[in-house]
């Protein structure tokens, strides 16, 4: 898919989801970093339920270090991989205090040095907390990009990100990230995507094939 066609597709998705935004509840860059760390292999809805009480108990990095690891684990037990994430949170808080004066660093390089913070998390924090354009490729962005032919099926997450960055104007990176997430989360789902109602179906080989198979099945059973 070339840049011009992608722009048309993104405009259509923008009309479908005009209020696309980060759905992780947070009040500052530190809370956003913790929330994104917790969201790995977990829904934003579950994370928000956990952080509703977590962020009242733990307001600053030192708060997470003032409790035993087991207590923090228990506080986030509903989150997948909670033991590993609890350990990373405490390590992250220690580094933030020792190296960054208790504040979340504002550069991508420094963010990815934090335990539990990968490229995707850093991009989310940079774009949403510090207003630096970025495209964070999560499972939704990756799936939608590959289905629409923006990226190849065997492209890595980094390759998907680079292709989107080349084809989308820099000032639109962040909003494009949010729109693709909403499209993937609520419309172009991994299971049971809404192909019959999709306004960009013509650009999706998988969707057209899926719809064709569905119609054939209906004819056979009718």
Helical content (DSSP H or I, runs of 4+): 55-70%
- How many DSSP helices? 12
Identify the CATH architecture: Orthogonal Bundle
In CATH terms, the superfamily is: Hypothetical protein, domain 2
Count of domain modules? 1
* Count of extended strands: 0
What form results from the Cα inertia axes?
A: globular
Helix- and strand-based class?
mainly alpha
Helix-strand sequence: HHHHHHHHHHHH
- What fold name goes in the CATH topology slot? Endonuclease III, domain 1
Give unreliable regions as ranges.
none
Give the DSSP E fraction (strand runs of 2 or more residues).
under 5%
Task: Please tell me about this protein's structure.
It catalyses: 2'-deoxyribonucleotide-(2'-deoxyribose 5'-phosphate)-2'-deoxyribonucleotide-DNA = a 3'-end 2'-deoxyribonucleotide-(2,3-dehydro-2,3-deoxyribose 5'-phosphate)-DNA + a 5'-end 5'-phospho-2'-deoxyribonucleoside-DNA + H(+). [4Fe-4S] cluster binds at residues 188, 195, 198, 204. Residues 38-186 form the HhH-GPD domain. The chain is mainly α and 222 residues long. It has one domain (1-192): Hypothetical protein, domain 2 (Endonuclease III, domain 1). Helix content is 61%, strand content 0%. It has 12 helices and no strands. Helix 1 packs across helix 11 (173-186), helix 2 packs across helix 3 and helix 9 crosses helix 11 (173-186). The longest helix is centred in the middle third of the chain and has 19 residues, at 82-100. The model has no long low-confidence stretch (mean pLDDT 93).
């Amino acid at each position: 898919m070339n840049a011009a066609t992608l722009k048309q597709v993104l405009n259509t998705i923008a009309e479908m989801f005009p209020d696309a935004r980060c759905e992780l509840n947070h009040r500052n860059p530190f809370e956003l970093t913790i929330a994104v760390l917790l969201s790995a292999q977990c829904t934003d809805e579950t994370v928000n339920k956990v952080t509703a009480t977590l962020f009242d108990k733990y307001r600053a990095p030192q708060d997470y270090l003032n409790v035993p690891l087991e207590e923090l684990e228990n506080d986030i037990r509903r989150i997948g991989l909670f033991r590993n994430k609890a350990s990373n949170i405490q390590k992250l808080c220690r580094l933030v205090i020792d190296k960054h004066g208790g504040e979340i660093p504002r550069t991508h390089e420094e963010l990815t040095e934090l335990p539990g913070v990968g490229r995707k998390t850093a991009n989310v924090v940079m774009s949403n907390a510090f207003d630096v354009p970025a495209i964070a490729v999560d499972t939704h962005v990756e799936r939608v990009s590959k289905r629409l032919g923006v990226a190849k099926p065997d492209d890595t997450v980094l390759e998907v990100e680079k292709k989107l960055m080349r084809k989308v104007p820099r000032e639109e990176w962040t909003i494009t990230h949010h729109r693709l997430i909403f499209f993937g989360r609520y419309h172009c789902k991994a299971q049971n995507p809404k192909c019959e109602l999709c306004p960009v179906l013509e650009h999706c080989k998988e969707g057209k094939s899926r719809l064709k198979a569905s119609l054939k099945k209906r004819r056979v059973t009718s």
